[in-house]
Amino acid sequence: xxxxxxxxxxxxxxxxxxxxxxxxxxxxxxxxxxxxxxxxxxxxxxxxxxxxxxxxxxxxxxxxxxxxxxxxxxxxxxxxxxxxxxxxxxxxxxxxxxxxxxxxxxxxxxxxxxxxxxxxxxxxxxxxxxxxxxxxxxxx
Length: 140
Description:
Blueprint: H1 2-5, H2 12-61, E1 77-80, H3 82-86, E2 94-106, E3 109-120, E4 123-134
């Protein structure tokens, strides 16, 4: 008689515990997906800004010494390429300020800096490259 009372299957409590565990796993997977999407977007923005700054620095390094303009004090700015950064759409770069500075150190030496500031979510980020260009190309 006792064997007849035993039934196979889940109790309601076991079913609820299983559903709760599945819900926790599903929410964790969704959170990880959202987080990874944000990280990928941030990384794409960083790579685009970094490669733009590096390309601009190479552009100035490939010029002859006399074709690199001298900036004037106090900030030595020679080029603002913010508009070209703002025109990027994939990924979109928010509030870019992209400038090149050329400071004459002496008659045969210039310090070149490429700086890009941009918004990454609520945080302000910047990338900067700097080098010295010497007359005759020595010292790059």
